[in-house]
Amino acid sequence: MSSSYERIFDIPIGPQHPALKEPAMLKLKVDGEHVVGVDLDVSYNHRGIEKAAEYRTYIQNLYLIERICGICNVAQTLTYCLAVESLHGKEIPARARFLRIVAEEISRINSHLLWLGVAAHEIGFDTFFMHIWLDREITLGLMEALSGNRITSSYNVIGGVRRDVTEDLLSRIRKGLDDLEPRVKRYREIAINDRSILKRTQGVGILSPADAAATSAVGPTLRASGIKSDVRADDPYSSHDQVPFNVITSDGCDAHARIIVRLDEILESIQICRHCISKLPAGPILQRLPRRAPQGEAMSRVEAPRGELFHYICSDGSDKPYRCKVSTPTLANLPALVRMLTSKGRYVVNIADVPVILASIDPCFSCAARVERTGGV
Amino acid sequence: MSVLRDIIERKAKRERVRRHSLTGEGKVEADPSFRGRVGLKRELCIGCSLCEKDCPSAAIQIVQDEKGKRPVFSLDRCMFCGQCKESCPTKAIYMSSELQLPVFDRKALEVR
């Protein structure tokens, strides 16, 4: 601005801020209450996991990779195991593939319920948040019974899964899903009808289908813009071709559509779990593989709860990977986030809408901190 | 106001977050399948030290006792992943569902 009355101001949100749960820096350019530009920096929590993976054996890496993200730990280990298995060129037993789907879908339900609670909290609707998290306990209980731990499950291992299921456990999972389904349907009803949710989310954070495709958004963020894309359907990695399911999309393109897409995905995940349990094939659950992986490169991708997760492993024939590269869904969704924050909906984005828009992509910044920023913009 | 119905329903069913305590009434019990405190069946252990090799957090040390080599687990370093149990060729390592491990002395967290 040329005059002494500067109209556009910089407002920093983060890296430590009450409205942000994770270290990220949003430098907002505001004109009054309206956001007109945004500069994003997420490299505050770089943990060097990819480098650390080069010094550990394939077996030890399983637990390091699992800790990239607590909530998507099943998806992380699944992607890693798929990459290592494709290095060996071995198929894993059918029963293990189905059990992997069960674990993956339970963790997806868990992640989406957690996100829904956080979204309700960001909207300012804390009663909703507490009710959702009370029902999330059901999935945590199922995860504990299935794998032996509530969050860090260590369920997928190289060559299969770790634990078999008993008939007793299967009926327990069935009962848990039966308890959960009416609750999720009720939350969907509330999310569609409640005025405070509608006022805070409808028309906020618009991401048009063209923008979503141009910024390579992934996961529920992309599907809420009406684009039908899901790794489970496009590139079935673990017997997903034998499981009938719908790819959920919505044409809303706003934060409200992202809530509805995730709630519908929970209902779809419940159906997938039920199908896998009823059609569970008999047989072994583990294909033992040698400790040393053959020389070569492998890539794998998985539909994690937040979107497409990608792993690349390069092996030099030893028992440690030569290079391990991870690309998480949050990193892919960040350009879309910038478009949303500068979007023009029914009205331009207000500062008060920023936490809701940020939460609507389900960010996980310490997963996304894969690169260090070295000055400049 | 739309969650009012849910609040009333939960009150009627007496559903609520349980109060947890460390001992006595309301003590938390983990699921039997929980991966808790690690233990060793000494008579089965052959001292192959595979558990030490595979442990991702270097919580296992191999020591010599009267019967030969055996692992010692440091639970303050352990992250309860259960890889030692998986790697053990003779199934000598087990994980109990013991959930709470608060102690005053670090020595008490060594499983010998």
From TrEMBL, chain A:
Residues given in the record as Fe cation binding sites: C72, C367
Annotated positions binding Ni(2+): C69, C72, C364
Binding site for Mg(2+): E50, V326
Pfam families: Complex1_49kDa, NiFeSe_Hases
The keyword Mitochondrion is annotated on this UniProt entry: no
Signal peptide range in chain numbering: none
Coiled coil: none
NADH-quinone oxidoreductase subunit D domain span: 123-288, 292-369
InterPro entries: ComplexI_49kDa-like, NADH_Q_OxRdtase_suD, Ni-dep_hyd_lsu, Ni-dep_hyd_lsu_Ni_BS, NiFe-Hase_large
UniProt KW Iron keyword: yes
Listed cofactors: Ni(2+); Fe cation
Molecular-function GO terms, alphabetical: ferredoxin hydrogenase activity; NAD binding; nickel cation binding; oxidoreductase activity, acting on NAD(P)H; quinone binding
Keywords, ordered alphabetically: Iron, Magnesium, Metal-binding, Nickel, Oxidoreductase
Listed name of the protein: NADH-quinone oxidoreductase subunit D
Organism: Methanosuratincola subterraneus
UniProtKB/TrEMBL annotation, chain B:
Segments forming domain 4Fe-4S ferredoxin-type: 36-65, 69-98
SUPFAM superfamilies: 4Fe-4S ferredoxins (SSF54862)
Pfam families from the UniProt entry: Fer4_7
Listed GO biological process terms: aerobic respiration
InterPro entries: 4Fe4S_Fe-S-bd, 4Fe4S_Fe_S_CS, NADH_quinone_OxRdtase_chainI
Superkingdom of origin: Archaea
Protein's name in the database: NADH-quinone oxidoreductase subunit I
Organism: Methanosuratincola subterraneus
Record GO terms (molecular function): 4 iron, 4 sulfur cluster binding; metal ion binding; NADH dehydrogenase activity
GO cellular component: membrane
Presence of the UniProt keyword Iron-sulfur in the record: yes
Keywords per UniProt: 4Fe-4S, Iron, Iron-sulfur, Metal-binding, Repeat
